[in-house]
Amino acid sequence: MTPIDCAQLLRLALPEIIVVVAALFVVAIDLLFLRRCGARLRFAVAAALASLGCAAAIAQIVLAPVTAGILDGMLIANPLTHLVQIALLALTIPALLLSVDSDFTEHVGEFVLLLLVATVAMMFLVATQNLLVVFISLELLSLSLYILTAFNKRGPQSWEAALKYFLFGGMSAAFLLFGFSLLYGLSNSIDLAQIATAIHGPALNPLLAIAIVTTAIGLGFKVAAVPFHFWAPDVYQGAPAPSAAFIASGSKVASFFLFFQVMALGFVGAEGSAALHHLVRGWVPVLALMAAASMLLGNLVAIRQAGLRRLLAYSAVAHAGYMLLAIIAHTEQSLAALLYYVITYALTTLGAFAVVATVERQRGSDRLSNFDGLGRQAPVLSFCLAIFILSLAGIPPLAGFFGKFYLFATVLAATPGSMGLLWLVVLAIAMSAVSLYYYLRVLKRVYVAAPPDGASAVQPTLLNHALLLALAAVVVLLGCAPQLLLHWILAAIHAAGL
């Protein structure tokens, strides 16, 4: 690598460098000056400093954007990668603020450091089309998330969840690496565009078919799609609330964007068809099967859950099925629909976990019975929860409704005339109707059921109130005026030339 390449690499990676410097600064301040202070003060200072670091990285991307690529797609900067990176940084800030009222660990600086390291890994993940950098970034992200899941050393559920997450993650990494090695063997390249050129052919190579399946397994684990979802309920249940919120939001945005890029750019010519009357071997029918299974299992199992965390976990499995439809369609419009859907879903999930954290802290657990009568005791908290739950259910005029509508419309438009993906859209709409039942169960508990005898009043802090109101306002705003985000997404996709 020449000095010019090194300088260009540092310039492209400047937002990530800012976040890393902020992480090291947080650890230094915590260890040197705040070690003997209370957990709340330490979390408040660490979250504030880390949030400023994320804001500085956003400012760097917005005010001094760089459009370039280096070393055959190893690191890419264009309006689309900038948009996704800004979304990741913006989602990290609420997860940091959610930790302010926490007391699950004495290692505050280390916790915030790992959260920022995971954010840096996601930023690299969405800014590359190189299989080697993809795998390294995924492993850095995964290792950070395993530790974040296990950070509550006082709770055995946290250890158990982290162990399951680690074991399943290790197996998925092996499958993904095997798939990537086959792609390299078939194409003699680790760049997605060059791989697509090399594997394009009239027939599906058997080794390419194995590479498709193993890659889908590895990435399916990252997005918690059936049958690679087993880790999700335990992680959502056992991880500390800030960790669970981060895993359920930011990592989903990065993972789905990566999934789309690998499939739509790296496997061009090996798509196949998922039309019921004309099935053709390729990656599209593989993902169609995963999407259908995710929508069915996620929604049906969520009905049986007695805790809001596990309900959100199985809901996430179902939403993964919906979002896989956009990858199956693999058009410009479906990428825009995917990004709008996953960003608004992440915001909604962050808000839901903020409510869960408040109720857990004051009533002891996330069981649905602990939400009985919440509407009378904490009206603002309950109102925000209602917005988040109804958005997840896809009720207008909230962001979740437009996200589903736009996604389903783009999927149908991807196969004009033949309506080959109509069966998947019909299944998605039917499962959305099923999801309305278990979402409304939560609201029934909040607004209809009476508070349990002797239950303590739920009193959110001022910061929690502000965070919840801000997230709820964004969800309503993006539902009423989706063009505010969608216009930005479409402009970025066109500018990136996808």
Instruction: Indicate the structural class.
Output: mainly alpha
Q: Give the tally of structural domains.
A: 1
Q: Summarize model confidence as the mean pLDDT.
A: 91
Radius of gyration: 22 Å
* Residue share in helix: over 70%
The CA-CA distance between the termini, in Å, is 28 Å
Largest sheet: 2 strands, antiparallel
Strand proportion: under 5%
Strand order of the largest sheet: 1-2
- The protein's oligomeric status is single chain
Q: How many beta-strand elements?
A: 4
- Please report the number of helical segments: 21
Walk me through this protein's architecture.
It is a single chain. With 498 residues, the protein is mainly alpha-helical. It has one domain (3-496). The chain is 74% helix and 2% strand. It is built from 21 helices and four strands. The strands form two sheets. Strands 1-2 form a two-stranded antiparallel sheet. Helix 4 (79-98) crosses helix 21 (483-496), helix 14 packs antiparallel against helix 15 and helix 15 (332-363) runs antiparallel to helix 20. The protein starts with a helix and ends with a helix.
Summarize the model shown.
With 498 residues, the chain is mainly alpha-helical.
Fold blueprint:
Blueprint: H1 3-12, H2 14-33, H3 39-63, E1 68-70, E2 75-77, H4 79-98, H5 108-125, H6 131-149, H7 156-187, H8 192-199, H9 206-222, H10 231-238, H11 241-248, H12 250-266, E3 273-275, E4 278-280, H13 283-302, H14 308-329, H15 332-363, H16 374-377, H17 379-393, H18 399-413, H19 422-447, H20 462-480, H21 483-496
Antiparallel strand pairs: 1-2, 3-4
Helix pairs in contact: 2-3, 2-5, 3-4, 3-5, 4-5, 4-11, 4-12, 4-15, 4-21, 5-6, 5-12, 6-7, 7-8, 7-9, 7-10, 8-12, 9-12, 9-13, 10-11, 10-14, 11-15, 12-14, 12-15, 13-14, 13-19, 14-15, 14-18, 14-19, 15-17, 15-18, 15-20, 15-21, 17-19, 17-20, 18-20
